[in-house]
Design goal:
Elements (H helix, E strand, L loop, with lengths): L1 H31 L15 E4 L8 E4 L14 H11 L3 E2 L6 E4 L3 E6 L3 E6 L5 E2 L5 E2 L4 H10 L5 E6 L3 E9 L6 E10 L2 H7 L13 H4 L5 E6 L9 H6 L5
């Protein structure tokens, strides 16, 4: 009898421990998400809407309340510029530059010719891209795993800037074959970061190693025409996006 009571007590303790662990993980996950991310609902309660983005090959089915961006594609036509101003307000013009900047609460949107639209996430927010990837939540490892799961190609590279490293991951865009999607993260260069990136002495492979970035969250997204030259924005250009007219 005593043995049966002890076994039952042990099972109850294990169940309680499992519940507390699940509750802690759930609260920790919710803590990562911001007010710009949609509330978590059961699947039966989720509602969807159709998002039409001019220039994309198809429309998108998104959750109601989900902050999905960008809702424009880079273009210089008067109609597209009018739509951009309707959605985001008047653009700031960067001095001595053809770029246009729309500053929003959750992100900063910058259009650079030729046909390049960059979205930089503001601290403390979450934005879902047209690819279904959440900036501020998804790591580069998660994005790469998604590409492998769907048998889609991806290309990554490390770019050494002025006292910084930028990791760049390029994938097929859900906007259509006329576009490419680029996810980036820039870190300030330090001796510790250099040690992780540069191959060890005597290595036969002299390529920089991206492992230091793979568990980092993606914070920048670029929608770019597939015909445009692929290039990471320069440090000067990044600073310029924060300058008002």
């Amino acid at each position: 009898m005593l043995r049966a009571v002890l076994i039952a007590f042990g099972l109850l303790a294990a169940a309680l421990g499992a519940y507390l662990y699940w509750l802690h993980r759930t609260q920790a996950y919710l803590h990562l998400r911001s007010l710009t991310a949609p509330p978590v609902h059961h699947a039966s309660e989720a509602r969807t809407r159709v998002l039409h983005v001019p220039g994309c090959q198809r429309d998108f089915i998104v959750k109601v309340g989900e902050l999905v961006e960008p809702q424009i594609t880079p273009s210089s036509s008067p109609n597209d510029l009018a739509l951009a101003e309707k959605l985001y307000g008047a653009a700031h013009r960067i001095r001595h530059s053809p770029a246009m900047v729309w500053e929003q609460n959750a992100f900063t949107l910058t259009e650079w010719p030729p046909e390049t639209l960059q979205l930089a996430l503001n601290t403390g927010h979450v934005v879902q891209t047209l690819d279904g990837i959440e900036l501020g939540v998804d790591s580069f490892n998660a994005i790469r795993a998604r590409m492998r799961d769907h048998n889609l190609p991806f290309k990554d590279e490390l770019v050494h800037g002025n006292q910084s490293w930028t990791y760049r991951l390029t994938i097929p865009s859900s906007c259509g074959p006329a576009w490419r999607s680029i996810y980036e993260r820039t870190l300030t260069e330090t001796p510790e970061l250099d040690a992780q990136i540069y191959p060890p002495a005597g290595s036969t492979d002299h390529s920089p190693r991206p492992a230091a970035f793979l568990n980092r969250l993606a914070l920048e997204y670029t929608l770019q025409s597939a015909s445009a030259p692929a290039a990471v924005l320069t440090e000067e250009a990044r600073k310029a996006t924060r300058m008002k007219k």
